Structures
1.
Amino acid sequence: MGKMTGAQAILECLKLEGVEIIFGLPGGVLLPLYDAIYDSDIRHILVRHEQAAAHAADGYARATGRVGVCLATSGPGATNLVTGIATAYMDSVPLVAMTGQVPTNLIGKDAFQEADITGITMPVTKHSYLVKDAKDIPRVFREAFYIARTGRPGPVLIDLPRDVTVNELDFHYPEIKLPGYNPNLKVHSLQIKKAAAALMEAERPVIYVGGGVKYSDGHRELLKLAERIKAPVTTTLMGIGCFPEDHPLSLGMLGMHGTKYANYAIQESDIILAVGARFDDRVTGKVASFAPQARIIHVDVDPAEIGKNVRVDIPVVGDAKSALSELAKAVGEKAWSPWNEKVAAWKGEYPLCYATEGESIKPQCVLETLSRLCPDAVIVTEVGQNQMWAAQFFTHRDPRHFISSGGLGTMGYGFPAAIGAKMGCPDKEVFDIAGDGSFQMNIQELATAVVNEVAVKVIVLNNGVLGMVRQWQDLFYEKRFSSTTLHRIPDFVKVAEAYGALGLRAEKPSQLEAVLVEAIESEVMTVVDIIISPDEKVSPMVPAGASLSEILELEAAGPSYEAQRSYAGSSGSEILEMEG
Amino acid sequence: MLHTIALIVENKAGVLVRIAGLFSRRGFNIDSLTVGATDNPDYSRMTITVEGDEVILEQVTKQLNKLVNVIRVSEMDPNESVDRELAIIKVAAKKEDRSEIMQIVSVFRAKIIDVSPRSLIIEVTGTNDKIEAMVRLLRQFGIKEMARTGRVSMVRGTKAVVP
Ligand SMILES: Cc1ncc(C[n+]2csc(CCOP(=O)(O)OP(=O)(O)O)c2C)c(N)n1
Ligand SMILES: [Mg+2]
């Protein structure tokens, strides 16, 4: 391909990897690279803060399944990416983060805007490179994209000293040679046989699904398997959308703010098939009392996940989709069982609920209404109560349609991620379900969205407080609301308008539907400010460190309060009833 | 329990940091760590000893395997492998103690590699147990300084931990 500069080579690599869009913000050491971008077909989206570049690339990746790419300058630009990289790492999102670096001869000299970004990000990257020679660029980029998207996906960082982007090289895209990297995708047929036999033998199965099913595109195989053996299916926050929530076998989400019936089913199950999930503490509650009667089959592409948090009876290392497909073939058809009846009874008895009377708009109702008006929307969330209501009260049906920072729980993630998701899926409606606190963490990206005509719809559930933290203070710290009241929330409608976006507001229940319809019909960047009470709770709730059987019901004033009864399951499970 | 793990790693910048970082981040305790060349200049060999139960050992092994620059991870079975460590020990040696020290040195098949008026430097090679035993005996004379290499280990017979 002949001689070119490092900067040109970088863009050539991105083209060869099929990259159509990168999110970034320039700086001194990146001048040569940005000069090359000026001539390139690759679309560069200029963000207003590098953290947003990483989140936007992440949202793009989660929505499309392609590798997201972001770019930041050396020093502060690079460190601004760190939260975004860590967010992607915790949720196994394929990302290539490029950072500028001071020239190689100045590295280690505390040069202007020097930061050891490979060192800083080592614990939160799948791998990283400091390129010291322009001729290594093609190999490094090829490897980086390959590592980011294969096996258990994750972020890879490439640090690019200025001189490396200026020096010339003979471009040649080499074959990948990574003797130490062999993602194990092929499932072991003997393990599949064992797992299938165990599933057939069991009487009370539950399938517990995480993000791995989404990333491996295994939702159809999951549906087939679940229907064959009539196993109820529960998902983690990351797994939402992998199984249609309106399906009779769906249990919705499990864990701290999961449905009661999902948690009961887990606690009473005699076998759990965990697929692409990692037994996070928000899911298991107290590990020692997690699913006390169940044998555990764990399917994961990352062998290190198996046995990390819970003991596993039948490990299956490999790709979730292939494992599910093999399992679906290996099992026989099962009939609707007493277990299915029991689970159905729980679903009838303990639905997700909330109080409907009162003057103010109910956040849960916002989500239910949106679900009805725009069932195919991509729902991106911030972090806090808004995130949990979005998980609970929107009926999720499709994978890659629910995007949320699960592992790291990053406030400020949702809005830039929604911009990235919308750019990757321009034909879909993309909502950011936001809290007033979280939205203010990356609110400056309104400019990015408006300038690039990205019609994201931000729904701010405006309670005037850092609601989720306040909820814990309310429950466990005697209502001592230390530093969780925001006191002065900017007028989000005016803020939107100041940036050139559309601002809408709903204060009364009667206004809700019309405002949501207007937002859905809007073809521009839109912020909907929805005023809710600071006292709304996310319910049910398993307190941190408690067993999954110890569920607090916090929507006690709700219509189904009467339906709540002390639960005396055969495992001795108990519910603590709380006053609302 | 103390486990010995042999690693073949790519001879690249930052590999040691990645491995050390992994141990600290995951809360594993490194007892000793040695790095050295292999017959192939592209690869280095590390021997790490870690304290912990089987569950920890399994996690350590699996997490190490995930590092892109780590080519092989092998747990060494103490019955199927030989291991050695080298120590050099500066011990206070008064005139009246010298002959006894020399005796200990010869019993342990160690060597004296430096002699000065008030001290001797002893070189000893062997298993961890042997070195510990020698150190215990030398303590009575006063150990002024000690440097140990940490364990290296190799499988007996034709099996090998190679790239
Ligand atoms: C960057 C960051 N800082 C702090 C937290 C801790 N935190 C978790 S939820 C929450 C409150 C979020 O407030 P808001 O965005 O208004 O959402 P709400 O819970 O009110 O819906 C906080 C501070 C976090 N998750 N992320
Ligand atoms: Mg709030």
2.
Amino acid sequence: MADRIQQAYTMRNPENLKFKSPEGLTEELVRRISKDKNEPEWMLQRRLKSLEIFNSKPIPAWGPSLKDLNLDKIHYYLRPNAKNSKSWKEVPKDIYGTFEKLGIPEAERKALGGVGAQYESETIYHNLKKDLEKKGVVFTDCDTGLKEYEELFKRYFMTTCVSPNLHKFAALHAAVWSGGTFIYVPKNVKVEIPLQAYFRMNAQKGGQFEHTLIIADEGSEIHYIEGCSAPQYQESSLHAGCVEIHVLKNARVRYSSIENWSKNTYNLNTKRAVVEENGIIEWVNGNLGSHTTMLYPCSVLKGKNAKSDYIGIAYAGRGQYQDTGCKVYHLEKNTSSTVLSKGVSVDGGVTSYRGLVQINSGAVNSKSSVRCDGLMLDNKSKAMTLPAMDVHESQVEVSHEAVVGKIGEEDLFYLMSRGLSEMEATKLIVSGFIEPVVKELPLEYAVELNKLIELEIENSIC
Amino acid sequence: MKSKKILEIKNLHVEVEGKEILKGLNLTLERGKINALMGPNGSGKSTLVNAIMGHPKYIVTKGQILFEGEDIINLSPDKRAKKGIFLSFQYPREISGVGVSKFLKTISKKLNPEFSLTDFKKNLKENSEILGISKEMNERYLNAGFSGGEKKKNEILQMLIMNPQLMMLDETDSGLDVDSLKTVAKGVNAAMGKDKCVFIITHYKRILEYVKPDKVLIMINGKIVLSGSGKLADELEKKGYEWIEED
Ligand SMILES: Nc1ncnc2c1ncn2[C@@H]1O[C@H](COP(=O)(O)OP(=O)(O)OP(=O)(O)O)[C@@H](O)[C@H]1O
Ligand SMILES: [Mg+2]
């Protein structure tokens, strides 16, 4: 299994594209994307407006440095030579091979209610189990979603959840987005097996801007899983995806994602959920790959009793900077949030937990508990925690705990005295450190995440 | 034929944080024998067993540690464990997130690769029963939140699973209630065999009533200064250490 996984992340296919935009971003390209997709005029107008916002906003001056990210060198739109199929048989062999190595078709057969697969800028496979389709569940790519559910898109697509004004890369995303996932779960429908989408970048200096829009109608439930990866090239690529989740009254959404971009990808991702009364959002967030990640899944607890649970794990090896954390806005009474985050850094890598809990005045009886820990495997690495609390209401319960430290020499000795090599002991300690997060994952993902981290540790401690 | 001597230490000098703690220690342990090591606080007992196990902070500056005739000073702790050396820690570490039974399975595979999973499970069940350790206990994380006594019992469970030749117990009896003490002693006696050797550090003769020593050694200020039969422990309990001359 370890071999299969390693291969899946290192293999690259030769480029086989129907269209590859030249380097850089222009209005002409934005128009071309919209035209290629046959979009309604209002979407084109939104894209163009967003391009303006993008051009007017500065690169963030806080957090990890983005000075080596050359936005003029990125290919923003890459159409693979494949159409969107409902059957894996119709997917071109090389592309199928990649997803096969990533274990996607197998997982679909075993444990998933539906699967979407995106390659470069386009979705190449999408399928939903028949019984879910019958219940009215919609699971498709966003391009198709826009065509078939235009009214929902007008109302929910980058409006009240993630606005293009949020930051520079949200605006960029809104200008050049392509592919992704659209899910609608009708009232009171509970989808019991997870749906999954997998996003793969293959081309050098590519950009991927998939959009995920989930609308969980009142009283519904859904678990959606996203995986992402890309092989390694000399020059940087850019991922600026966007996830928007609308959790309506009494609904519950669990969103899990394990991102394993190549070590030179800039992963500048935006994820946000708006949660109505009694709604629950659960975030499971794993960040292993990438050169630099800036990702702060955010829950806006808009209705009474709304709840947000976040568990996150970040791993940073040589040259990597994982800047992640959860943001929660408590806007109403009785809202609650929990955060559990674990960062592991090795060989000069940096993890930082950057979070925010804001409780507005009037949000009485709200509760929040934050725990963020960092483990460094050597003296070269760094782990930081930067949790911010902004509380404007006195009748609330907030707690915060953070433990940051280096792997203990005494712990290593203890385990080695039981016959484990230094490497095995290190791996065991790391697996124990991340266990509270891993145990929340579905089994296959837990096993895969552990294996990935073991591989990373093996590669960095020799 | 294995030689009678399992461990032989010659003129051992050990430093911790730049300070010399063991100052020319000599010691021979034989197979089939139970040995007790006693001595005042800070005399260097834990330092000795840590140095034998290969703790990186305990630096051997001079002398030899021969295990089954081979000098092990340059071996890492895991290699020493594989040769059959075991240390029950005075202060066992808490390893959060690592389940006890999963951990025991891992070390069983390392130390006894010939055991199948079924063998291991049987072993785990039997040995847990000897020590009165419940199934639930083995589903918890290794030592995390364990009481002092629970930790010590878990050390002995690990020892029984690993099946070592040389069993060094660093104050395993400290903090145990009367019943637990008997249970732990039962575990140690179960692990003992004619090829094996127990080296037990203690401050009290109580445990020595259940794990009967063939020999009692006294350490003062980094050296073994006296050895005698089991009776020596009674004498120490009455008189303390002051009557013993250092040289
Ligand atoms: N890791 C360490 N760092 C600094 N000093 C140490 C360390 N380990 C031991 N020492 C010192 O070495 C000396 C001997 O300690 P050691 O733990 O070996 O004593 P001991 O005989 O086991 O005592 P006790 O009966 O109290 O357990 C003490 O002065 C102790 O402070
Ligand atoms: Mg001691």
3.
Amino acid sequence: MKLITEKRELSSQLFRFIAPIISVLVALFVAGFLLQAAGVNPAQAYFEILQEALGSTYGLSETLVKTTPLIFASLGVSLAFRMQIWNIGAEGQIYMGACGASGVALFSGIESHPVMITAMFLAAFLCGGLWAGVAGILRARWRVNEVIVTLLMNYIAILGVDYLIYGPWKDPKGYNFPLTAQFSDAARLTEYFDTRFHSGFFLALFCALVLYLFMERTVWGYEIKVIGSNPKAARYAGMRTGLAIFAVLFLSGAIAGIAGFGEVAGLQHRLQHGISPGYGYTAIIIAWLAKRSALGVVIVSFLMGVLLVGGDSLQLTWQLPVAFVYAFQGLILFFLLASDFFIHNRLKLVKGDHHA
Amino acid sequence: MSNLLQIQNIRKTFPGVVALDDISLSIAPGEIHTLLGENGAGKSTLMNVLTGLYRPDRGEILFDGAPIHFNSPRDSLAVGIGMVHQHFMLVPAHTVFENILLALDGVPLLFSKKKYKQQVQTILDDLELDLDLDDPVWKLSIGAQQWIELIKLLARDCRLLILDEPTAVLTPQESARLFEVLTRLRDRGKSILFISHKMREVMELSDRVTVLKKGCSLVTLKRGEYDENRLASLMIGEDQIPMWIKPACKRDQLALEIKNLSVRNTRGRADLDNFNMKLYRGQILGVAGVAGNGQKPLAEVLTGLKEATSGRILAGDKDITNSTARSSYIAGIAHIPEDRKSIGIAPDMTVGDNLIMKNFNSKLFRRWIFQDRAAIRKNATAKIDQFAIKAGPDGNPVRYLSGGNIQKVIIARELSEKPAVLVALYPTRGLDIGSAEYVHKVIIDGANQGMSTILISEDLDELLKLSDEIVVMFRGRLVGCVDPQETTREEIGLLMSGEVQT
Ligand SMILES: Nc1ncnc2c1ncn2[C@@H]1O[C@H](COP(=O)(O)OP(=O)(O)OP(=O)(O)O)[C@@H](O)[C@H]1O
Ligand SMILES: [Mg+2]
């Protein structure tokens, strides 16, 4: 007897739908052993996660606060994926967006709230876009691999922001902490219910809708899909693929940049070290799991938000090391990816003498 | 006589499509069995079931009398069923020998290269094939690459050889050679399952013919029980073959003139060498030649995919040699490319989306920045109907269409905008006879309305039937120009071989 894998030619709609759910359950089951080993009752821990992330106004608001930047960054990454462009640099683009928005907030002196917010938004959009646009030009002109460029530029962006907040932009009254001065009230997004939940979330949902319409309804979306499906055919049909590569990377970075805007204008109200704890990397996974759909991005981002907030609470209540939280998230991802495999393949036991 | 392969009541469905409905068929040892059927009848699907790429929903396959269930092409190879795919799977940087070696199972890590080489060389000598085992594959013509595919199967000692439209990519000479070899293999007891749309070949080669229609095996006929008309009417049924009349071209208005055009390829060789040609309004200019003698580069320069090294292209009195000057003009040039799957379609997109790929930006399909979905759908319905495309369920990605139907999608798109010039490479390759006739009719209709066509084809019957004038290419140069009314197949053949010039 031996175990072989076999390609499924088509998988039922139902299976496609329940496979990820099953895989999350399996991940919870396996993580349960880890929890048990750490002396924590798994059922209680899971209840705690849900309770913490969704069970109270505060918890839910925190979950949405984390969901917001994830949606922006993942929308950016998934837009590039549609054209088979791999933007691994959302993290850096978030930092650049935050940096641009902060620059406007700190130094423009605009007093009107709507003007200020719009200007910050545009600055974040441009900074994120240009940052990714560099990779776009290199790729379109000289065929430099965008994966390497976007990835390496993350480090430049993060360190560049560090330079600013440790140096020229440091708050003189900040007791030498690496942060800028607080933004004026004009530069802050509205917050609701006395929580940190801010209007950036609605902007993220709106952005998802716009991107959906862009891809599915506009001529440009059509072009992106043709290029993504077969670049040679696109060139043969007279499309300007080089320009499209630049434009898509620019847009992709610009949308990720908006995440940075949301973080500084809605949450931190200043530029500081570590404004993104890796949202840009999580975004790659989210975009991948969400396949090509904007709605998928929103849903998966929310689930990731639950995991992040719930994970934090595990750390606090049970004194579990942070490594455990990462392991837990890793397990869930691992099984989600595995479910993707099982949607397309099946395992089969065969007799030993079978030709295979 | 017991059968080598017996297929019983095979059914295979895809979402929304019944590709194979009820197929029964048997193949005897030492016979050449041809499958015939319209585009989308299910021929390729059946082959893929036989080689383990697809699993049938129902039905039984007996090989040597024993039922078999394949999970992958490796399983079918293991019992001795091998297939030459239409898109070869060779490693271009490797030599011929290395490619063949890759196909062999159980080659030890430290193998005696000499011994295996000897073995492969024996097969070559035996079939009197002139291939150098040390040549890298990229240097070889498509025809030669197909030989390698076949030899891979022979080296594995396959007993059933499946060939899916092998002659679609071969020159007439190469086809003749292939048939010689296939016949010889047959005489030695190999069984061959063969697909072709070319009647002449089917008549020449087959011991038995099975006609497929809409996923059912209609009838199997022995040699002597069929003739071309019988087969055609079985295949097409009551459907009518379109009629057309070809008027003579007046040659009053010059559409395109090519003067001393040269194109060098990346390897520095001349793809086109001092090429001269005139194309008149409404003319159908046939270009004959063995594939690889500059036809593709010619099409690519004309359609803006390649730059000329020297020489001039004139449209009327305008010089359009350089691509910026050409770009506005190119919009009026339709191009049916040779390499359909790789440049002609966006495989993941729907038939409707593929049909507008060339003019998605036109006012017809666009309102401001938004696509006019209703108009796109209407266009799709019209084209699918007009060209009898088997498009499958609504929203079906093009990649799921059969080879011939993909070809029809491209032709329908290219001819939809009333182009001034059509550059068509092997436009009816892979089309069933009904569809081929329809495409001919569309080209003629276009010519009647002033469209000039450069028809590049290896099918001499097609060239002789459609062209006002036939030019012959050899090694990137024009070696002859003949009148289809007066020339013979032999004369063109000689010109194509480069042995004479007019
Ligand atoms: N993977 C697939 N998914 C969905 N439909 C498919 C798939 N493969 C084939 N079909 C459908 O099955 C039918 C038969 O296709 P097939 O490729 O077998 O035709 P064919 O006889 O080889 O035609 P041709 O002469 O054009 O090559 C077609 O309608 C095609 O659209
Ligand atoms: Mg086929």
4.
Amino acid sequence: MKYNPRVNEAVARVEGIANGHPYQPEKISQGALQILKTLSECLIEITGMDAITLQPAAGAHGEMTGLLIVRAYHHSQGRPRKKVLIPDSAHGTNPATAAMVDYAVENLKSDSRGMVDITALEAQMSEDVAALMLTNPNTLGVFEQEIHKIADILHAKGGLLYMDGANMNALVGKVRPGDFGVDVMHLNLHKTFSTPHGGGGPGSGPVAIKKKLEPFLPAPVLMTKSDGTLGFEYNRPQSVGRVRAFYGNFGMFVRALAYIQANGPDGLRQTTEDAVLNANYIRKGLEGTYDLPYSTPTMHEVVFSDKVQAKKGVRTMDIAKRLIDYGFHPYTTAFPLIVPGALMIEPTESESKEEMDLFIEAMKSIAEEVQEDPQTVLDAPHSTRVSRLDETAAARKPVLRWKPAV
Amino acid sequence: MRYLPKSPADREAMLKAIGLCSVDELFAPIPAEYRLSRDLKIPRQMAESEIVDYFRQRSRENGEGYTSFLGAGAYSHYRPVIIDSLISRGEFLTAYTPYQAEISQGTLQSIFEFQTMICELTGMEVANASMYDGSTAAAEAVMMAVRLTSRRSVVVARSLHPEYREVLATYATHQGMPLSVASFGDDGRLNLTEFEKLITPETACVLIQSPNFFGSIEDVAAIAEIVHRHDAMLVVSIAEAVSLGIVEPPRQADVIAMEAQSFGVPLGFGGPYCGVIATREKFVRQMPGRLVGQTVDRQGKRGFVLTLATREQHIRREKATSNICTNQALVALMVNIFMTVYGKVGLKELAKQNLAKTAYAAGTFSEHGKVLFAASPRFNEFVVQTKEDPYAINSRLLGHKVIGGFPLKKFYPELGNAALWCCTELTTRSAIDTAVGLVAESERSVRSPKEADVEEVTR
Ligand SMILES: Cc1ncc(COP(=O)(O)O)c(C=O)c1O
């Protein structure tokens, strides 16, 4: 997990920031509006895009906002389209979002390198395709090297390139999506900009766009008024509408801005470099012990499979549970779907070399156990207050609340 | 570089282990023409003291030290200190989504408690682990009703929070769901005869808010009766959670979409807040969002897991009930702690204080201006109609460090010079007297709005 700087928490609790009412007059909201403005400017520069909305509450909410913008754009062109292309490696929120905004989902297969299959894309691209939702680096931790071709294929037929920016921790300060042809993208402030994960939220999913999509941004939009003060503009006739009450998860904006300030341009770049270095160090350390389904270079995360261990009846979830006994929070299991038995490892920049060495050692030790004593792994975890919990029973007869004994 | 634990020597050693000479080689997969060869144009690195100073400065520009009468979907209640002490613990703050149940029992149990207490308060049978906020919860609850009824059109009360209505319109329009708006009567509550006429055989659900945007409590039982007679579903939005301490919960509803911000969540200029959906057990498979369920481990010991995931995007992809993934977990924990600290008796006492303060304020106001919908039962908000433009009045109040009620003109021009005032347990009697005095003074010497120094108030 990425470190959550404690100074972020402190500044988010300063009186006028923590207790500002969303409807207090603009005249006495200039501090909050200045925070929105400065963060917006930073994120626009980091992504290389032209404009941004901070309103969406999480990544998936940003996806919905982004696709609504795509839809409104095509509508304004007098040619509403029906489909969205989504690679088979994509996160589940991508197809779920497309369905929510009433687009048909068409799967796009990956090639043997784990990247978008360019020939397949060419064949599937048509004037019925509104956009391609591309995660870059994708969920295998692989940078789409032919991104310029992908963008060209889309643009040639009037489609838009949507980028799921959940993995921006691999790119900040090194490369900007706006420079490689992305038209609309979302960021996850809770993944890339150090706002706390909180056991599953809150998030924040700003959507950054190219100039031609600006009229469609959700209302209201931040503006500088003629007297130089900041305010909101509500009169946006082409807007997709509002996606959330008020202005977004403001408390997360405060934290993200504090993080950017603590780093500066050189710090952000170094952060990205360290995140990529850590993932590659793990890859090197575990290659040969665990199966690496795609040998394409790794960015911020590396995906192994349990192919070797499965022969002993041990699956990725078992290895994950055993890792708990070694004092580590498990990696992501069983995702992405194109890798059967996936072990997705994303160390982030926050782990030290010592910690990485311990992790690699633990993973190697578990691999040995799988060969010599698989039952120990299958019965893991052994060190927790509860042992493996019965998820099937939980779903079969759901008990979703406590009830007093009768 | 403040948050990076590696020394240059560590980096060197790691690169060497990988078999590389420079870190740039790690970025070789990115086509060279796109690689950034300059610094980002963002503020230079700041020291911690500078960061703290920067935000203190912004805080000063942000209405520090005002007495506020604003509610309208975001409420100022006391937050017990223990909330921040507990949620600041790294085990809660940094913890990942509790997919690995064996090491996430704390998070999971707290969500289970949250679901339980929301059920107790709303009279529903199941509640989810949270939604983004009250507005998106309402929109998702409506979509849930659309799936459950296989009908597509929606009737929404004009007395629902206007921004919730806007959010619903965004969600519904792009799915081709027709919306019709039901007006309110002279008492500020849903006009029942007119509203029944809007229900057609295609109506999936009716969405109302209670207490509604004007603070009036709707006759949910009567409304439910009408809605159910047409085999449609009733979705009730609750924006002021503290009302549940004293107002009968809308248990006749089929789905409740709530904003729990009032329970210990800072105003924070509008977010993060805590939405939640609660409903009947029989509808649970169409419910969006995460759910925690109770189960047993291999030794039969009680424990908790995320459950019914086959509704969700990571399993069902385009067939999921919603695209929601990350929710508002840490904020739901604040809510949970708040409910635990206040308890049954405390919440009732809290709600009573809100009622009393509001009754006093509305009474005093009515001596100098017109309190609309005065005959309807209300919770902690009321509408004051004045001769003068409320923006002008508020502008004058600001000079006395008072933030007046929320002007309703933009959303409800039919109410004329009206503003929505809110009092909570934190509003003092002297603050009420001061505000009423200033409004009364204004009213005695009404100038035309044009003359007045009208400030465009954030709306
Ligand atoms: C690649 C990717 N896309 C989208 C999302 C969805 O973001 P969120 O959970 O904030 O809605 C996630 C994370 O959960 C992700 O990893």
